[in-house]
Design the sequence.
């Protein structure tokens, strides 16, 4: 009889331990699913990609040993060339750059220099 009682106690202890493990598993499972659900709604709000700003037009700069300064922003190449032509009698270091490509498109004489790569507001 004693042996039967000991077997029952052992069986009850094993069942209680298995039940505790099962409950912990269920709680963990629910917590992980809730965390995934909660983070999905935050991700959708945060991951909104803005459109890239495209810089267009032309820039006339004075580039020499002492300065590298933007003088004029124009919409067309013709306007940039007109600006260089107007002021080329006073400066031989004016350079026009295409803002979309960054390439040098015109100069007023001996002008050479680095291509300006900035953003304009």
Sequence:
């Amino acid at each position: 009889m004693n042996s039967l009682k000991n077997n029952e106690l052992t069986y009850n202890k094993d069942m209680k331990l298995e039940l505790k493990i099962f409950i912990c598993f269920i709680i963990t499972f629910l917590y992980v699913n809730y965390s995934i659900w909660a983070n999905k709604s935050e991700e959708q709000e945060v991951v909104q990609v803005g459109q890239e700003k495209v810089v267009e037009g032309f820039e006339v700069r004075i580039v020499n040993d002492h300065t590298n300064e933007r003088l004029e922003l124009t919409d067309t190449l013709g306007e940039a060339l007109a600006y260089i032509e107007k002021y080329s009698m006073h400066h031989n270091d004016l350079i026009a750059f295409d803002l979309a490509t960054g390439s040098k498109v015109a100069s007023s004489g001996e002008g050479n220099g680095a291509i300006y790569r900035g953003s304009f507001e």
